[in-house]
Amino acid sequence: MSKSLQAIRGMNDILPEQTPLWRYFEGTVARLLDNYGYKQIRMPIVEFTELFKRSIGEVTDIVEKEMYTFEDRNGDSLTLRPEGTAACVRAVLEHGITGGGQVQKLWYIGPMFRHERPQKGRYRQFHQIGLEVFNLDGPDIDAELIIMTWRLWGELGIRDAVKLELNSLGTSESRGRYREALVEYLSAHHDKLDEDSQRRLKTNPLRVLDTKNADTQAVLVDAPKMADYLDDESRAHFEGLKARLDAVGIPYVLNPKLVRGLDYYSKTVFEWVTDKLGAQGTVCAGGRYDGLVEQMGGKPTPGVGFAMGIERLVLMLETLEQIPEEISRQVDVYLCAFSEEAELAGLALAERVRDQLPNLRLQVNAGAGSFKSQFKKADKSGALYALILGDDEMAQQVVGFKPLRGQGEQQSIAWDALAAHLATCVVQG
């Protein structure tokens, strides 16, 4: 027998019982970003490979190990996007929308792809919501990004389960001086480093700071600190950011080992982390990348942004049981009809109700069936109420109104009064 078809490992289907929570999360974020004045941009999921080599860095784990890269029929090397910032920068450069110092506050949503070891909350196709802001160079916009996420956690009911970690990487010049001091220190302890850190020491030494190896972490205790190498401008920027977070009352922890996994970051870097998801603790991360646009061929343009993983945040909502009751209910009202004449009248009645109550989730039974079978489907739908149209109801031009959850007797409602009654029972209660 041929092998049964199935999804690629680490690339998962999101099933109908899961999508309401995804839509709730995505809708909550979209409304928040609208309220803060951000505009959505949509980029292709495939880009020329060179884009990511130039932006992320050729000696990063993402480019070296994790990208899905292939040649198309023209012989061009293409890559499924592993992150969104580079693609967004490419888009704003291509269309010239940041030229002349134009401020752009953008957001995007969609799948990203990395060939990693699949585990809970971490997949090879994963979904992110990202924000990018161009042509604002002060700590005020860095603070706004963090304040927005703080408000989002509050709206989702998970604020107590996340912690903000902050660091500053300084400018490329100050980071270069720090890199030299770090390499000198780590080279003197080379034999105590794990194999992966020994490799990174030659290619991307700042990534050694992010190691999870306990022996290497012990070596790092006495390593040089980035804060001691910051230039005055970066130090003032970082103090300005902290002052704004203090003013709003957002707690944070300074983490001198926070470096992020991409080469283009400078000055502010931050992560929102949690201990509710096991090893995969980062749910949102970002920072400033003032040199990236120029690095990709544009004029010097300040930039800052972040990305949040939708899978991990949806998992957090489930783990912490922060799922609004209405999310699990996809149907408010289920209409049952028990003759061909009643079906025709039911369709017309349902459309009139939908005209008057466009937010009502009203499902009309399809496939006919007995009284028992239709009520079984109504109950399975999760609806709060069933509407009943039989011969008696048709003769009186009323509809039976039966509560399916909790107390209440069945009653008869005139057709022309049905929408008003549903507005009271469902939309308001």
What does the model show?
This protein is an alpha+beta fold and about 425 residues long. About 40% of the residues lie in helices and about 20% in strands. The protein is built from 16 helices and 16 strands. It has helices at about 20-35, 50-55, 60-65, 85-95, 140-155, 170-185, 195-205, 215-220, 230-250, 290-295, 310-320, 325-330, 340-355, 370-380, 390-395, 420-425; strands at about 40, 45-50, 70, 75-80, 105-115, 125-135, 165-170, 255, 265-275, 280-290, 305-310, 335, 360-365, 385-390, 400-405, 410-415. The chain has an eight-stranded mixed beta sheet. The radius of gyration is 27 Å and the shape is elongated. The two termini are about 55 Å apart. About 35% of the residues are buried. The mean pLDDT is about 90.
Instruction: Identify the strand order in the major beta sheet.
Output: 1-5-6-11-10-9-7-8
* N/C terminus separation: 54 Å
Count of DSSP H/I helices: 16
Mind describing the biggest β-sheet?
Answer: 8 strands, mixed
General form? elongated
Strand percentage lies at: 15-25%
Overall mean pLDDT:
91
- Report the count of strand segments: 16
What Rg do the Cα atoms give?
27 Å
